[in-house]
Amino acid sequence: MRNVILRVKERFVSISVIFVTAIFLTVFLLVEDELSFTVLMLVGGGLFYFVKRRDCFKEVIVFARQSRYGFLICIFLALLTVLIILRNEHFALFMIASVALYSTVCFGLTIQLGYAGLTNFAGAAFFGVGGYAIAVLSSENFPDILSVLTGGFMAALVGSVLILPILRTRGHYAALVTIAFALLFKTFLELNDTLGGPQGLKISSMNMFGWDFGKSFFGGSFYLNYVLFSLLVMVSIFTLTRLLEKSWIGLHWDALRIDEISSASFGINISSWKILAFTLGNFFIGLSGALYAKMLGHIAPTNFTFGDSLILISIVILGGIGNPWGVIPAAFLIIVLPEKLQFIQEYRLLLFALLVILVLLYRPDGLFKKALRSFYRGWGKV
Amino acid sequence: MGNSLLNSQGLTVKFGGLTALSDLNFSLEKGELLGLIGPNGSGKTTCFNTITGIYRQAAGTTSLLGKDITGFTPQQIYKCGITRTFQRLRLAVALSVFDNLLIGDSSSLNTNLFFNLFQRSKLKQEIEKKINKVKKIISVFNPALVDKLYEPVSKLSMIDRRRIEVCRALISDPKVLLLDEPSAGMTQEETRDFMNDLHEIKTKSPDLGIILIEHEMNVIESVTDRCIVLSYGKKISEGSFKDVSRNPSVRTAYLGED
Lengths: 382, 258
Ligand SMILES: Nc1ncnc2c1ncn2[C@@H]1O[C@H](COP(=O)(O)OP(=O)(O)OP(=O)(O)O)[C@@H](O)[C@H]1O
Ligand SMILES: [Mg+2]
Description:
The structure holds two protein chains of two kinds.
Chain A: H1 2-10, H2 12-30, H3 34-53, H4 56-66, H5 68-85, H6 90-115, H7 123-138, H8 144-168, H9 172-191, E1 201-202, E2 207-208, E3 211-212, H10 223-245, H11 248-258, H12 260-265, H13 270-296, E4 298-299, H14 306-319, H15 324-340, H16 347-362
Helix pairs in contact in A: 2-3, 2-4, 2-5, 4-5, 6-10, 6-13, 6-14, 6-15, 7-8, 7-13, 8-9, 8-13, 10-13, 11-13, 14-15
Chain B: E1 6-15, E2 18-28, E3 33-37, H1 44-51, E4 59-64, E5 67-68, H2 74-80, E6 82-84, H3 97-103, H4 113-118, H5 120-141, H6 158-170, E7 176-180, H7 188-204, E8 209-213, H8 217-223, E9 226-231, E10 234-239, H9 241-246, H10 248-255
Parallel strand pairs in B: 3-8, 3-9, 6-7, 7-8
Antiparallel strand pairs in B: 1-2, 1-4, 4-5, 9-10
Helix pairs in contact in B: 3-6
């Protein structure tokens, strides 16, 4: 016990930074009117400046590196606090689950764009394939956990139709193929009556091994079910994505993304590695789409437009291409900020454009630049 | 002819109306260092790109130890045991030295999805073995590079980058090594270091056949066993450097006289 207290003392600064951030984000999720939003932004800016001046962020990173478990426990407790405070706030919880699922989608896109160099402008379409798959299956009395996986498989399967044209074309043309698909997908949905046409489909709420997601979670909002499950999915897919990066597979993807000719000259089969990245990425995207559709309870073609695909790609770029760590804060910014800026209406888009330009100007590698690969913990230390 | 390591007959490459290589015959023996020289644009790099399957030949055949490898993909060529360096370096400068070298050994890596994701302790063992292998190879060239194994290639000097490229080509223990102007951009001192490296390679792997493209004539003179001179895609002379350099048509080709 004394040991724990001593260690907490040693890490006091890092722990406070984590908890203050958590509380700040909680309040951020809760504010509605413009006055409190402005005040909060000013307070946040001040806090950020203060923390940055004292190099506290560095201490947090040192904390994460030196005592991994202590850091994870700390994050877990901070998250728990947030969820307890927000237990009855439907909208805030919905936002958190959305951020988790959009992040998961962007891990898939990170594998495609960041690792293998495949630009996929049809992220929202594959997200939609997962959603529609589960919508069709939930009227069939099919176990929900399997339906979620089926959503992933369907997205991967539909993606395999695009693989041939993508492999045959190069650079920007491959991106054009995905744009064409994204546009076609929405039109296809609108014209397809068995899939509900423009009205879309209703979906029953998730039910897993008797755990009914439609019911209140220990007295809190039913959204808590989705939040917890989405976070679980996000953490799992994040772990898989990082493991891929820190393996021979990540090395092969990096090699062919950077230089196809030299990779080919060293025996790397470009096509099969691209197929693997595209398929795995789409699987993760479809899986999140299925879960997202379950949470919404209703899907329609307007959820899966080309514009949504662009938002997904911009999350990946903002976070730092190829760095799954950056995806989570970027997803938070891009998903939550527009909701909070409702009061300036369509000027939001202007602000969004400004944000993109600022990032491209001052942080061309995104908020968090991809680091060198370390294959395992303690990599490179003699 | 059947016994030579690498053998090309009638190699012809065309880019539209331009014949970059015309009816080239040559062979390379085990343990031989063959110099490939000629003025700018005479087709030397094209020759490498054709042997390694990056360009398609309009005519001609290539065989390795008697086996026909004409029309193979670059991947197949690599697996047969022919590796190369590039005239303009093609290293992944954003990746670490270790990563770059391992790209050269890609076919020996276990790329099974399950193994890479879930058998991490076995993967770690494999990686540690590779670290030792890589260290052994680069310490032959420059022992100081061993300490830079985990640094990005972008931080290395020109000569060290060239060395890494050569190591990447050597790590898979090939039968034929193709070096495309390895001394380009080096100072005289660095070039001398590099010639020592070449001697080192020859003593370490006595069976390795090397073709060297080089503009630096003193390098060619001191390291090659035999030379081929190209001009406008045609072989105009072949023999020891001494013989070749005395050949009047070679002099005209280099001095640009008619
Ligand atoms: N991909 C290509 N497309 C069209 N023409 C090409 C291509 N590659 C090479 N050539 C042409 O073929 C000829 C031979 O070029 P190559 O690069 O083989 O010369 P080189 O002997 O390596 O010259 P250098 O000493 O300058 O490297 C040149 O005229 C070049 O312009
Ligand atoms: Mg050349």
